[in-house]
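Hi there, hope your week has been kind to you so far. It would help a lot if you went through both lines with me. No rush at all, and the record is pasted right below:

***
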Amino acid sequence: MRADAHNAFGVYVHWPFCLSKCPYCDFNSHVRHAAIDEERFARAFVREIATTAARAPDRTVTSIFLGGGTPSLMKPQTVGAILDAIAQHWSVDRDVEVTLEANPTSVEATRFAGYRAAGVNRVSLGVQALDDQSLKALGRLHTAREALDAVAIARRAFKRYSFDLIYARPDQGVQAWAGELHRAIAEAAEHLSLYQLTIEEGTPFFGLHRAGKLKTPNEDLARALYDVTQEICAANNLPAYEISNHARPGAECRHNLVYWRGQEYAGIGPGAHGRLDIDGIRHAIATEKRPEVWLSRVEEEGHGLITDDLLDSEQRADEFLLMGLRLAEGIDPQRYEALAGRPLDPHRIAALKNDGAIVMDINGRLRVTQAGFPLLDAVVADLAA
């Protein structure tokens, strides 16, 4: 049976290893030059799934996302073991979405066929750019040709696929980005994730940026790049359903919608996060980030859990607001009131409406406008105050 969208339940599985660490990346990813004991990690994933399912039983899994790191470095049989364990401990919706992230450097037709046989039905490719100079500057190991070849392999192997691009890169102009985006849309079936380059503390790019050796677009150019992104995608039937994600209607990533709609999801693997409702209380869960330490903890205790915070009604409501307003569909203010125990301030809503940052649609949903999305953090902070 297809689970009701309101009862969606996702499982996120984190494979933490990469071939190299990109200079802009602050994700929990690690490079290991020695061979990784994949079978041992697979056993640990299976065990943590069992422990998590015992805490949160009687769920129907509607989406599974294998993220990283670079999950396409896993053997298909490892992916199969993980998916089998999920099906063993939870019910799985007959129309479950199973996404695997892949880098073009690790895409092989035979491996993709193996993933498909294991149960993967959607892939997300980390293309990031379609010109070789930008790819080199971003620290990527593939060329634009290799990226497009990987997209072609994904297209043959899976009905559903997506790929990522990073824009607002150093020295990138609006016209160049528009041309790159048109090229990407010609290769995209149904979904694109388009992220503005952000400089994250602790990354090599952060140090270069602070030293003045890496210049990113100023505010006006960044806004122009954002606006042309929205215009081109909308004109090609790939409207933004979330601030950085574009899809043909009906082709949205169902797993990511679980996050943005404030629904439940389990986090499995090193550095994974989860949101679980246990005995009527929302738990914010995180596991040990260091892969080998996580592995030892799971082998000893059955899980790698290091954080298990109970969210009160105000925290849940704030998280719902923060995540939900990223979506083009916006939020239901009545759900916010039910979570927070109080309504949103009508005076703040009125002021933001007058500024053109938000609208209330005919169904009573509160949505951020196209003009408001670049100011999303400020809009959320104002409403939550």
Summary: The chain has 14 helices and 16 strands. The longest strand covers residues 91-102.
